[in-house]
Design brief:
two-stranded antiparallel ribbon, 23% strand, alpha+beta, globular
């Protein structure tokens, strides 16, 4: 796939990106800027993490004539449907301020549900991996995982060495756990039957959103979009299977899950079950097909979704599984 292209859950033809209809009056960009001038630059494909609304089309999830998604001032409660995996608006606190965030990255499954898309470009890498080994971890037999007590997800500012939380809106608060109400967190909570679920979604990268507006910074970039859930999971095996089944069955935004989920056992997934599956979707702007691995772990108190990317491309199965497992070791803490 090419950098800055929509991926899973990109809109379906004849719709444009984010489900808008072609030929509608031009609307401002997602953050209030004019669509032809993201960050003051000439019009171009959106950079990593910043899908822009194409000229002449309303933003994702809107009817013609509405303000662009994410444009309303802080404090307003009106939100469109968010991309699966996209950080949810902060709920409560902060003087009632809320930030509507549009995110897109090849890494974004955010992407993993209705409305999300890959904005990472450069092509996919679906040839790597060894058919699902994912490293040298181990699990206690499927469906018979040892319950090691309550754990939560701590979305640290920095993980995996040099990966930092990407700041998509300057000055916006860091992602905090919230009850899942939309997108991927909602799908995972419902599918897994997690009790008292809380979720947090972030993009971790070794590049800032501003840096990735410069295409020369794509080479050497690394990122992982992460959806972390915690609560009580009675049956991790069934929960994992049901999440993948619902991802496959949800056709509302044109995502196609390829093949079947593959069991992997990276070291970071000790004490958990993990599977990965590749997904593809047509980029409505280019008619090209984008692909990315989606890796999900499940244990008795947490479920995590990871979608890695490197150099603006999708990553092999083993790489995707190992990175997601390594992230689990850092963000899953007793609590």
């Amino acid at each position: 796939m090419s950098y800055n292209q929509p991926g899973p859950y990109g809109g379906q033809e004849p719709q444009g990106p984010y489900g808008q209809q072609p030929g509608q009056p031009q609307q401002p960009g997602p953050y209030g800027q004019q669509p032809q001038q993201p960050y003051g630059q000439p019009q171009q494909q959106p950079g990593y993490g910043y899908p822009q609304t194409p000229p002449g089309q309303p933003a994702y999830g809107q009817q013609p004539g509405q303000p662009a998604y994410g444009q309303q001032p802080y404090g307003q409660d009106q939100y469109g449907q968010q991309p699966y995996g996209a950080p949810q608006p902060p709920q409560g606190g902060g003087g009632g301020k809320k930030a509507a965030i549009i995110i897109g990255s090849a890494v974004l499954v955010a992407a993993l549900g209705v409305g999300g898309y890959f904005a990472f470009a450069g092509g996919d890498d679906d040839k790597g991996g060894s058919g699902g080994s994912g490293g040298g971890g181990s699990v206690a037999g499927e469906g018979k995982l040892k319950d090691d007590g309550p754990h939560v997800i701590d979305a640290k500012d920095q993980v995996l060495g040099d990966y930092q939380q990407m700041e998509l809106i300057p000055g916006a608060p860091k992602a905090k756990p919230a009850a899942p109400t939309v997108g991927m967190p909602k799908l995972v909570a419902d599918s897994s039957k997690m009790e008292n679920p809380m979720s947090v979604t972030v993009i971790y990268s070794n590049r800032s959103a501003e840096e990735l507006q410069d295409k020369s910074k794509v080479v050497g970039s690394k990122a992982i979009t992460f959806v972390g859930m915690y609560g009580k999971v009675a049956d991790p095996k069934q929960a994992l299977d049901d999440v993948f089944t619902d991802l496959k069955n949800d056709k509302s935004q044109g995502l196609t899950m390829l093949g079947s989920p593959e069991s992997v056992s990276p070291a970071g997934a000790d004490g958990a079950l993990m599977k990965c599956q590749q997904a593809e979707a047509k980029n409505p702007a280019t008619n090209q097909v984008d692909r990315q691995y989606i890796c999900i772990w499940a244990d008795h108190s947490t479920i995590g979704v990871g979608i890695p990317a490197k150099d603006g491309k999708g990553t092999p199965l083993d790489y995707s599984a190992n990175l997601t497992g390594d992230l689990r070791k850092e963000v899953r803490v007793a609590g």
